[in-house]
Amino acid sequence: MDLLGVLNLRGNNLSGQIPNAFSRKCSIETLDVNGNELTGKIPISLGRCRKLEVLNLGNNHINDTYPCHLKNITSLRILVLRSNKFHGGIGCPADKRPWPKLQIMDFAHNSFNGKLPNKFVARWKAMEVYDDEAQLNVKHLRFEVLRFSRIYYLDGITVTNKGLQMELVKILTIFTSIDLSCNNLEGPIPDVIGKFIALYFLNLSHNALSGKIPPSLGNLQQLESLDLSSNNLSGSIPQQLLKLTFLAVLNLSYNQLEGCIPAGKQFATFTNDSYEGNRGLYGNPLTQQCKDAIPNHGQDSNPRTGNHINWNLISVEIGVFFGLGVVILPLTFWKGWRIWYFKRIDRLLFKFFPKLDRRNRNHRTISQWIQGRRL
Fold it and tell me: Which of 32, 135, 146, 347 makes a 20 to 30 Å CA pair with 103?
């Protein structure tokens, strides 16, 4: 394999483990074994392939942890582990700096768990680079078959974006994508992802992520697809997301989001499917509009009319009427209660107004007069 530049074995029925036989002179730049029946672990010797740019192990049965033993392959641009049996946390020890050129990472449909560490995610520096010069010098990932021959092998890859599988026959060096969907990740979305201004697609759906949607995601100027569905995200949808002028697909369904959906720009193009499963959301395109919505603190609403019932206010009014009823009804219908009640009133009056007692020794008090009238 010392002179081998591309090893593409995808879409076969290969089984067993990947041989641990990569030499120190390994020159492989592309290794693609996607869509086989491979098992076992990623061989340690693969870390000797320092020129590796594309590693596609997707759609196999590989049972391993996060491949930190490939940390020395600083040239790696594409890492696909999709639909395997990878498990454990995502990240390497703090003193390691793997894959500064990584631009496509697809770890979907595995069993990764734990939190996404901010410090580790921050090392994917290639996702932060976006400038006019890069756009003018767009290139494709390719391998020169024969030196000086100008005959190239163009790397291709299948990615899942906007809900569809896409075959990228030519991979642009400016294309960036993160897919961590369908794992067991938890905790907040790392705020540092907001620095990935070159990111085109972000899919964190079907995990157990919690907390609020970081407003910093509004900095992702090139983002075309954002899928955060089926998590435990809470709070409101940040108004900063209105800055995502290229956003074509948005899926925030089945979370615990609340408040008013941002209005205008790209958000005017999204349908109910983008927000279903969030009972606290209102505004277009949902039936309940922001101007009619009242914060749901002790409230309920009529599903037919949409009118809100403020149970906190009603409970106070019910308490007042109930208290008055306890006092007034016995005075009206119970003679013994009236006599006892007015005697207590007289005592309170004489206690706080002694002069009233002296003036009225030969006269009936007001309460006695009222009592006599009622008797």
Answer: 146
